[in-house]
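Open question from group meeting: does this chain pack into something compact, or does most of it stay loose? Before anyone orders reagents, we agreed to write out a predicted structure and look at it together. Recording both the input and the output here so the notebook holds the full record.
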Amino acid sequence: MITVTVHLHTILQRQTPDGLVSRLEVEIPSGSSLADLLQYLAIDLEPEHLLLVINGRVAELNRTLHTGDQVNLMPAISGGNENTIQYLSPEEKP
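Structure tokens returned:
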């Protein structure tokens, strides 16, 4: 098993009886990837809608995690409201 620190930003923060949680210590099996971590955390956003950062560097889903890694998970778009945010399909992206 390995332990990683996960920082959840904006809408990914977890509501608990003690308030919002934005930092988690997560123990997952050795050899787990970033995709495995997202599945374990039950993140409901599609990976293409997230900025995935490990130890300060943008990472791919297949990146293997190691003990001590600092993982930041951020929605790709933050702010505004549902009337001002436009979601582009992959075909519409500039």
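Observations to bring back to the group:
Confidence is low (pLDDT under 50) at residues 84-89.
The longest helix spans residues 34-41.
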